[in-house]
Amino acid sequence: MPSNEPTDVGVMPTYAASMGTPAALARFTEAMDRAVSKFDDPAALAAQASVELADLLAHPEAIGEQHRVSSDESYRQHVVHVHPEGRYSLVALVWLPGQATPIHDHRCWCVVGVLEGEEEERRYRLVEHDGEHALVLHETGRHGRGAISSLVPPDENIHRVSNCSADLTVSLHVYGDDIARCGSSINHVFDAELVRTDLSDEEIGAARPKAWRRL
Asked: What is the pTM of this model?
């Protein structure tokens, strides 16, 4: 995949020891611990994570400086917390201006909230056109501080996220799996060459949606 972007989403997560647990972060983990002990349904867990993440985003001081370190090479991923049984993970992604993920989807439910800065999200549809797979841009949105979005497979959730601001951006991601175990395989990365910008609206409308078998 010829690209100047990282070929994996969060290639090697950076773990940093916490200097104590701030109250808002403790509330979040305690609430999520109760949720995963009560629910198995991914949609219900994503909905609960959205509620709890909103409170955490209102207290940016709960995320320490060790989880806000950027890199000139690409966006950087810091693991903040993993459930003892791997039922969910809380990860901070730190972006310098212009840094972006590759196009990817998720093998588990995921809730994302912007802690500071601004992100641009481009969502894609996977279709079959003339016997070949193609990705077509479906929706573009900008998410500022406090914005929350969720992705729950098997609903299509192929997207690319970038820092579209002139400043540092930090977002918090809650994954419904153990990122310490899954690593970069928590996502599937699509070849950027699959993106088609030359198809007309009529051709896109006539193209067959292609179901993607996730990991």
From this structure: 0.82
